[in-house]
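Field reference: sequence -> structure
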Amino acid sequence: MPSESDLLGELLPRLTQLSAVLTRSRVVDDAQKAAGASIDRPGIGILTALRLAGRPMRIGEIAERQQVAGPHVTRTVAGLEQRGMVHRVTDPDDLRARLVELTDEGAAAADRYVQTVFGFFADVLGDWSDDDRRMLGALLSRLVDDITARLA
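Structure field:
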């Protein structure tokens, strides 16, 4: 039976390779171009987070999902707001608070981005069984959650 260090010795190079391949690939760049309007990575990350959430969110929640500091999100949201991609609305649960909401233009840009990324991964995973895709999703979710908890 392999030891823990043997298993980690096999896993770490593959994680490094995955990171390098995705970083070098044109997937994110192509998806950003598809989104249009020269949106930078932080901006498209916020638009995508809002689109995938399917609801307006507070700055703090967006920052938490993006794993960045709130002031970074605030600056990026301000830029997106100036471009008409998002606007702020009153939080119905706390009338003192504001939520960030996609505009139609922001939602369309996020949809184009997501469709490009989903299309890429659908092609990559096209020959995988449904069970394998579900297992990958479950294990990646667990890995990200555990890493996030460890770093907190």
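Note: The longest strand covers residues 94-102.
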